[in-house]
Design goal:
The complex is a heterodimer of chains A (111) and B (318). Chain A has 111 residues and is mainly alpha-helical. Chain A has 6 helices and no strands. Chain A is 84% helix and 0% strand. With 318 residues, chain B is of the alpha+beta class. In chain B, a hairpin with a 4-residue loop joins strand 4 and strand 5. Classes of the chains: A mainly alpha (111), B alpha+beta (318). At the A-B interface, helix 2, helix 5 and helix 6 of A face helix 1 and helix 4 of B.
């Protein structure tokens, strides 16, 4: 990103890009792309939540919540692989929510 | 300037790409119906207790439905494979939930009725048992009848008052019903008419045979007969407490009817003499004619016929 900003300054220095809103637009776009990259971390967090729920016995104690969390996590991974970050995030959130419920019902706490 | 144009071109391209990517495809009516159908299946399964009966399948169906909705909204995706996957997941969910739900249902207990027609019979007669049941798969009746259809009839002929009990069995358990057939004893046979035993012939303890000369075909007492009749008076007075029978007889001349009448009149004449002249109470004396019965002589001879024309005075014992 710094490099891009530097490139923008370069444009400015060279006089080929004088309008600062163009730079801002580029920053916003790049930030949006960077946000998509954060999906991998979210999926990893969801996977850890699922593992905690499983460790608490959620697979047997609260199978619906556990398998829902697992199913949404799989779909999130699929969407992430396909590059659909929005869908991946949506499914990741669902997975984390079900993992939290499973963990709570299984007696493992809310975290 | 050229770089600027290049930069703007990239920006427009990115914006177009994002615009296309963010735009959701409009679902067709068929797809909406398909999703509604899948949702209905899942909702039905949930009402049937899918969360307890098939939690894994329920979770899978919900995830696949959400995934299919998402994929169907993507402009570049073909929705049908995902819809089919979701639909299959919903079917699997129902397939596993339904038997579980059915097993949990409280089966209604069977109902059974049993009656007898008539419910009161005479010994040796029969009655008809009728029964009907609901929610029963089988039925059996005691008293040796055994397994029967859940509804039906059967003739029974109990020898004595009997309680019949039917047991109907179904998925919801067993129920019983009873009926009683009262058996009355047969009416006593009509008493056979008592044949009156012929009165025992009173024992004759003494007898006197009188040969009284009556006019032919007459019963009037002639004076010549009085000595003979006085012998009778003296004879009966020896038995003041005894009953007396006076029997008249004839020979065999004439018809039976005539002889019976004639002998009877002559016996009555002797009785009258005994009552009038001998002071014998009339109720002590019975008089009857016996016609030509009991001949004591040979009717072929005059002497014999004379012997047969007689009056016998009999003293009867108690």
């Amino acid at each position: 990103m710094i490099g891009i900003i530097r490139d923008a300054n370069l444009f400015k220095r060279r006089g080929t890009m004088k309008r600062p809103w163009v730079v801002l637009m580029a920053i916003v776009l790049i930030a949006g792309l960077a946000a998509g990259c954060a999906t991998a971390n979210a999926i990893q967090n969801a996977r850890e939540s699922l593992d905690k729920a499983k460790a608490a016995g959620a697979e047997a104690k609260t199978p619906f919540e556990y398998y829902a969390a697992k199913g949404y996590l799989n779909k999130a991974s699929l969407e992430a692989e396909e590059g659909d970050c929005k869908a991946a995030n949506t499914f990741t959130k669902e997975s984390k929510a079900y993992s939290a419920k499973a963990l709570e019902k299984a007696g493992g706490g809310t975290k | 300037m050229r770089n600027r144009h290049l930069f703007l071109f990239v920006m427009v391209l990115l914006a177009a790409f994002l615009a296309v990517g963010c735009g959701a495809r409009q679902l067709t009516k068929g797809e909406i119906d398909q999703f509604d159908g899948i949702s209905a299946k899942i909702a039905k399964a949930e009402r049937m207790g899918a969360k307890e009966c098939a939690p894994k399948e329920l979770a899978n169906a919900k995830v696949e439905l959400d995934y299919a909705r998402h994929e169907a909204s993507e402009p570049w995706e073909t929705a049908q494979p995902f819809i089919k996957t979701a639909d299959k997941a919903a079917d699997d969910l129902l397939a596993k939930t339904t038997p579980c739900w059915e097993a949990k249902q409280v089966k209604p207990a069977p109902l059974v009725k049993l009656s007898a027609n008539p419910d009161t019979i005479e010994a040796g007669k029969c009655a008809t048992l009728s029964w009907s049941s609901t929610n029963a798969s089988s039925a059996s009746i005691d008293q040796g009848i055994g397994s029967m259809d859940p509804s039906g009839t059967r003739q029974v002929c109990p020898a004595s008052t009997t309680i019949y009990t039917i047991t109907a069995t179904g998925d919801g358990g067993s129920r019983t019903a009873s009926t009683t057939i009262i058996v009355n004893p047969p009416p006593p046979p009509l008493p056979e008419p008592v044949k009156e035993a012929p009165p025992a012939a009173p024992k004759v303890i003494d007898r006197l045979t009188l040969h009284i000369n009556f006019d032919t075909a007459k019963s009037d007492i002639r004076k010549a007969a009085i000595p003979e009749l006085e012998k009778a008076v003296a004879f009966v007075k020896k038995y003041p407490n005894s009953k007396i029978s006076v029997e008249g007889y004839t020979d065999n001349q004439g018809s039976d009817k005539y002889n019976l009448g004639l002998s009877d009149r002559r016996a009555q004449a002797v009785k009258k003499y005994l009552v009038d002249k001998g002071d014998v109470k009339a109720d002590r004396i019975t008089a009857m004619g016996k016609g030509k019965a009991n001949p004591v002589g040979d009717n072929k001879t005059e002497k014999g016929r004379f012997e047969n024309r007689r009056v016998e005075v009999l003293i009867l014992g108690e």
